[in-house]
Amino acid sequence: MNISIILAAGEGTRMKSKLSKVLHKVCGKPILEYVIKASRGAGTEKNVVVVGHGGDMVKEYFKDDPIVFKDQPIGEDVPYGTGFALMQAVDHIEDNSTVIILYGDTPLITELTINKLINYHKENEFQATVLTAILDNPTGYGRIIREDAGDILKIVEEKDALDEEKKVKEINSGIYCFNGKLLKDALSKIDNNNAQNEYYATDVIGILKKEGYRVGAYVIEDSIEIHGVNSRVQLAFTEEIMRKRINEYHMVNGVTIINPENTYIEDGVQIGRDTVIYPGVSLEGNTEIGEDCIIRNNSRIINSIIHNEVSIESSTIEDSIVGENTHIGPHAHLRPNSNIGKNVKIGNFVEVKNSTLKDNTKASHLSYIGDADVGYNVNIGCGVVFVNYNGREKFRTTVGDNAFIGSNANLVAPVNVEPWGFVAAGSTITKEVPEGALSIARAEQKNIDGWIEKKGYKK
């Protein structure tokens, strides 16, 4: 059985935030979520997360996730350190398990690396294995000192390292694999008799070596994966790396991204082949984009489903569905719960909210469609307003198939326009428009001759 223990109890003081450090987001998801996802992807069957400062916020966010949370005590008299954090999870370590130690602030770690670490640990029958990295500048990191056979002899912190040891470029990432029983035994033996008065996970390695057990070292292929987030600057750096990963993933799978450096796609967004993404586009949340779509500059799509062959230009779409071969924009806004059919046109400065528009309907410019059910083949003219709110309540409007709503008309809900109903331009409709009827609701035009001269405007 593979178990992960994810240490997420740090204060994150350098973030200067009321939010728990591990809840700060990278490409739309908390940094801790990436670590959990990578751990599960590598086959861990139980994930134990040790929380401390801001722990209640973390638990609340992941309340629907089958994670085991353990609280690390907080207080001036409480000893800290990675070893102390591991002690909080000892009750969930099974004797016959393989335990992977991870950190909640390293979202760039991948399931591939964790899986390789586990396999290396098991295949070589190590009792402990350290994930290491080779750095050109290892300053600040604990150095890996190996035996002639290649196993780890010891881990030396920089402040304790001899001059020759400081030249070693292989460093300790702080990520480990342990035999479950031996880890429990060693945790019961470590102490905090040091300058910091803290318990260290590295002491577990020293105890196992002293007792004659083999400790291996697996060198990570890309050291960027162990990059931790301790400040807003590091958060921005991590965001850049993650965004690049996500964009490259989509390009490898057949999506054209014109300018990846100026395109924001959150983790989990799905995009079909031969879709083209222009600069300035933001795709967020649980968004799904079909094949052969064109998403042009400065469009933002959140939690929406966009079917095949859709064209979107400089528009915002939230929590909505757009059918095949539909054109949106420029400067349109689909607000939540809009369901747009096939071959529909939502044009310049059209706003749709909580409405359904069936296939082949057109609202080409400057209209507001709110709380409406609009049928097939409907034409909605320029300046049409679906008047859905009386100051206290909202009401729905129904427009039947093949209806025609003339420019600058107001449909005052609740009201029905039956199929093939025609509304004359400039009308304010408050009553039902029967099928096949033309409805005109505007004052009769009256011309007053000579009005300009009487008012003295014309000389």
Q: What does this 3D model show about the protein?
A:
The chain is of the alpha/beta class and 459 residues long. It has two domains: 2-226, Spore Coat Polysaccharide Biosynthesis Protein SpsA, Chain A; 255-439, 3 Solenoid (UDP N-Acetylglucosamine Acyltransferase, domain 1), CATH 2.160.10.10. It contains nine helices and 41 strands. The strands form seven sheets. Strands 12-15-18-21-24-27-30-33-36-39-41 form an eleven-stranded parallel sheet, with helices on one face. The longest helix is centred in the middle third of the chain and has 21 residues, at 232-252. The protein is elongated. It is found in: Cytoplasm. Its main location: cytoplasm.
- What proportion strand? 25-35%
User: Low-confidence spans: pLDDT under 50, at least 5 residues?
Assistant: none
User: Measured on Cα atoms, how large is the radius of gyration?
Assistant: 31 Å
Distance between the termini: 97 Å
Main sheet specs = 11 strands, parallel
CATH class of the largest domain: Alpha Beta
Residues in helices, as a percent range: 10-25%
Number of domains in the coordinates?
Answer: 2
CATH architecture classification name of the largest domain:
Alpha-Beta Complex
Mean pLDDT: 94
Question: How many extended strands?
Answer: 41
Looking at CATH, which topology of the largest domain would you report?
Spore Coat Polysaccharide Biosynthesis Protein SpsA, Chain A
**DSSP helix count?**
9
Q: Tell me the strand order in the biggest sheet.
A: 12-15-18-21-24-27-30-33-36-39-41
CATH H-level superfamily title of the largest domain = Spore Coat Polysaccharide Biosynthesis Protein SpsA, Chain A
